[in-house]
Amino acid sequence: MASIVVTAMPFAGHARPIRAVTAELVRRGHSVRAYTGRAYVEMFESVGARGIPWRAAPDFDERDLAATFPRMRGRKGPRQVLHNLEDLFIGTAAAQTEDLLAAYEDEPWDVLVGDPLALGTRFAAERTRSRWATLAPVPAWLPGRGIPPAGLGLRPATGATGLVRDAVLTQVTRFAMTPVDRAYQRARAEAGLPGTRVGFPTMWYSPQLLISPGAPSLDYPRTDLPGHVRFVGDLMDDGGESAIPRSSLPAWWDDVESAQLPVVHVTQGTANVDPSDLIRPTIDALADEELLLVVGLGHRTAPLRGALPANVRVAEMIPYQELLPRTSVVITNGGFGGVVQALRHDVPLVVAGGDLDKPEIAARIDWLGAGVDLGTGTPRPRAIKAAYRRVSTDASFRSRAARLGADLRALGGARAAAHLIEGMR
């Protein structure tokens, strides 16, 4: 039995997949502690881990980031990305390290396993000279030959022109990330660590083991992926999806089970949750279509006001293991966890990727032929309707989604991730 500490940033989209791997480690008999925000400690304790809440680190409410990080107030797009990196992820790293070192002094771990955006994981591993792995709930896109720099939502280019484009953009990206690199060096000094030549974008990841969701086939082709990067498919796949109690399903669930029309699901994820970005335009777009539109609001979006079309059903959270096998198309903002779960169930997508990593995900889905990239996070209803009709009537989209789904299912999910972690002891 190993003593393992896992870290998870206190966001639903991070905590849930990391909890799935934690549950598998607990089932295998390991002693697991989970370092996360107070809002998610009970979630980890419910699967048998011991919670370590943020104490020195400034715990925050993911529904109101600006209350703790004022520069993020009203921000979207590149400014939001920059402030996320500098204030939330890098700015809390030294305090996270303090919490983790206290946990290590109380009970040394054998292996430290961390959310890449919980940078205190890296710092604590360096301070204690520990074996450590990155467990990424979001895509881990390392730079490489033949692919454009991540973050711009670009597809691979070919020929001499493409090589020049990528070389220029790589230099521009490095320059743009100079403030992030400087903030990272300051955080290292605050955590009692020396400076390093490692910087953006590799500073988030363990050089020993990087467990990534997804599959090689879900990324652009490349020949130089480091050997310590291991893909495991869908982290929410634990190999034994049990039936959900009827009491956990929406009151209207019988409408889904008995539907004779296509079931379409729309989700806006858990980060930017203004329903006017994607949910409302999708409802308007599909109000007159012959389908059942299932809207997942997430736990941060306020209830929708006003009357809804007769073909719309709304709930805060909907168990995907029940919904996705019955779904024909998913319309999404591009959150990677939801995208991977949809593909694992062979469901094609319409993606409205606005910011953060979403444009990258949307571009890959479109390039792979498993869906349509709307090219914006705030699409018009007319664009959504056209994309839905294209994806729902062209069988090639479902065929390509199914091929990706087969790849994802073969990689093992949470069980494979746990096995890799066990190998680090």
From TrEMBL:
Protein name: Glycosyltransferase
PANTHER family documented for this protein: STEROL 3-BETA-GLUCOSYLTRANSFERASE, STEROL 3-BETA-GLUCOSYLTRANSFERASE UGT80A2
Residue intervals of the Erythromycin biosynthesis protein CIII-like C-terminal domain: 283-408
CDD domains: GT1_Gtf-like (cd03784)
Organism: Georgenia deserti
InterPro entries reported in the protein's UniProt record: EryCIII-like_C, Glycosyltransferase_28, UDP_glucos_trans
Range of residues in the leader sequence: none
